[in-house]
Write a structure and sequence with these properties.
Strands 1-2-5-4-3-6 form a six-stranded antiparallel barrel. The protein is globular and about 50 Å long. The protein has four helices and twelve strands; from the N terminus they run βββββαβββαβββαβα. The protein is mainly beta.
């Protein structure tokens, strides 16, 4: 379980293919605090630490994960948003994030707004999935590349988010531009409500 508050945007230092899987090796400031079998969100995808060195750690993404997320598009040097699992004895600063990416979206516009930025994302709309809560709502929560954000200008197949300078500088939003593929996780609370409404 995560909160969508990114701890660090860290570089990929190695990628190794293994049949249908890939092994991603990351370098970050908190490697010495990690343990084997620990969960870490990578661009919003929950992956398990399988090995580590003094300054790097490695996780494995299977084919199912690669098909649903942007992890298969990563290259050495790309920045990845990292978040360790949420502590249950503190404040929930973002929203409840599972680390289970629903689908990808494409950035279609980045507009400067006098010190902040509006990012527009478009995703493949499916009416049946929308009935199950796979959608955005105005002022609702959405997780983009592991970042908890508030939705504005929600449409059937697109939405915008406003990015403040701190988020721009401390996550990989600094690398997102029109054409960039990002990971989406829709709000789990909305999914549960949508499912319950089907049985009314």
């Amino acid at each position: 379980m995560f909160s969508g508050i990114v701890e660090e945007a860290a570089p990929v230092v190695a990628i190794r293919a293994d049949q249908g899987n890939i092994h991603l090796t990351m370098r970050c400031s908190f490697v010495n605090e990690l343990k084997i079998d620990q969960s870490v969100a990578h661009n919003g995808v929950c992956l398990t630490v399988v090995s580590k060195t003094d300054d790097t750690y490695t996780v494995t993404a299977i084919q199912e994960t690669l098909e649903r997320s942007n992890l298969g598009k990563l290259q050495v040097g790309d920045l990845v948003n990292l978040e360790r699992s949420m502590l249950m004895n503190g404040r929930l600063d973002g929203h409840i994030v599972q680390g289970h990416v629903d689908q990808t979206a494409v950035c279609t516009a980045v507009d400067e707004a006098d010190g902040s930025w509006y990012y527009t994302f478009t995703y493949q709309f499916n009416k049946e999935l929308a009935r199950q809560g796979y959608m955005t709502v105005e002022k609702g929560s959405v997780c983009v590349n592991g970042v908890s954000l508030t939705v504005c200008n929600s449409k059937d197949d697109s939405f915008q988010v406003a990015i403040i300078p701190y988020t721009h500088e401390h996550t990989n939003f600094c690398q997102i531009q029109p054409g960039t593929v990002v990971n989406l996780e829709f709000d789990i609370v909305g999914k549960y409500i949508s499912k319950m409404m089907r049985y009314q």
